[in-house]
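Journal club prep — side note

Before the paper discussion, L.F. wants everyone to see what a predicted structure for a comparable chain looks like in token form. Sequence:
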Amino acid sequence: MARTDERFRTAFNALLDYCGTLKRGDELPSELALARHLEVSRTVVRSALDRLRDEGIIAWMGRNKSLLRTPKKSDRLVVQSDQISQEELERQFLDWILRFDVPPGTSLNVTELARKFRVPAYGLQEFLASLSRFSLVSRRPRGGWELVGFTLDYALELSDFRLMLELNAVSHLIALPDDHAIWKRLAELADEHRRLAEDIDERYHDFSGLDERFHTAIGGVVRNRFVAEFQKVITLIFHYHYQWDKTDERERNLAAIGEHLRLIEALQARDEAAATSAARDHLLTSKQTLVSSLRSHALA
């Protein structure tokens, strides 16, 4: 995440405040504990810790993080007060659902959420109305909104639709010229996958974000407004609901990393048959995981 991002700046300043409560030599909590305390992803926490280390505020060796000096006022970053964009609202809303396991049927308090996401209440109302087109949220009979659960039929239909979209994207990608930006992006994603696999015990929760970036990069080669609209639905379903079932999450994520790398290698080799097969196998796995998680959640 870029350090100019407002979310990073807010989290970094909050981490400075936390360090201000410590004494020199005190140990900082784990990345996971800090992420929970700051209500951000561990990716943001690591970026903030990187800057603290660069500024000589902490020492960071492996899992050990200790305070070297008390933060100063000059260490703080400027945070813009402008309201976030619609695109950023969508990202934060989906991330909030993903990180905090908001269950179906949860009442969505517009006033609280507007304050949380730094948007006017009417703007949040419009955003929720846009999600209602896909049956992601619904109005309560007596007013207000709630998050809607997903039926098995809904999940199966969406999975089949996703398969059509991504196989089409694979065919488009294979035909792109060597100087297209996607080839560099695939190389970067392959490196990210390998790094995550090496650190899977500590970072397996981070796979959801990488999975989203991976599928967005592949789907992004097809310029189609309808595909972009349904990406919201696909993101919410496959990067949130299938994680209801926490059983073997590390193993499932590690296996998915291998499936992604198989697809990337086939794409880089311009082998359409192998790429199509890899994509189909991976999406079938995702579908099975989604169906399993829906059934597990129904029995919970």
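L.F.'s comment for the group: The first strand starts at residue 58 and ends at 61. Keep this in mind when we get to the figures.
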